[in-house]
Design brief:
alpha+beta, Rieske Iron-sulfur Protein, 6-stranded antiparallel beta sheet, 4-stranded antiparallel beta sheet, 1 helix, 19% helix, elongated, binds FE2/S2 (inorganic) cluster
């Protein structure tokens, strides 16, 4: 067996290695945001049963927006109790607002109008606002995802 001396790396070999390493790092840096985009988002959000903060101080006709689970929900105090509906418009997902003067939900994106029961009055939404379960326990009010 012959003993051979290792050849020192040539300048060309070193530069090729450097370019390959740089290409790999650049590719990895560009791929990370793409992979993060495709990775399923964690189901975030709060608890699925939430107490309505300040419910006792709400006057009839008033509404508040809150988060139940991962959903934005609008809770309305009516004359005979509370009701809650998803605040996400069934057309393209914009957040609707409760107009206490008109007693209607208004979607700012395409001018949709929903009545106080979440039913479509006008505009492009294909369906009513989904209701949420409301429970009154003493002077506390809880909203639960349906
Ligand atoms: S998103 Fe609400 S009307 Fe289009």
């Amino acid at each position: 067996m012959a003993i051979t001396a290792e050849k020192p790396p040539s300048r060309r070999g070193f530069l090729e290695l450097l370019v390959a390493f740089g290409t790999f790092v650049s590719g990895a840096v560009m791929a990370i945001p793409g992979l993060m985009y495709m990775w399923p988002a964690a189901k975030g959000g709060g608890p699925a049963r939430v107490e309505v903060d300040g419910a006792a101080r709400m006057s009839p006709g008033q509404g508040v927006i809150m988060q139940v689970g991962s959903e934005a929900v609008i809770v309305i105090r009516g004359r005979d109790g509370f009701s809650a509906y998803s605040a996400v418009c069934t057309h393209l997902g914009c957040l609707v607002k409760w107009d206490s003067g008109r007693q209607e939900f208004l979607c700012p994106c395409h001018a949709a109008v929903f009545d106080k029961d979440g039913q479509v009055v006008s505009g492009p939404p294909p369906a009513a606002l989904p209701p949420f379960v409301v429970k009154e326990v003493g002077d506390k009010v809880f909203v639960t995802a349906a």
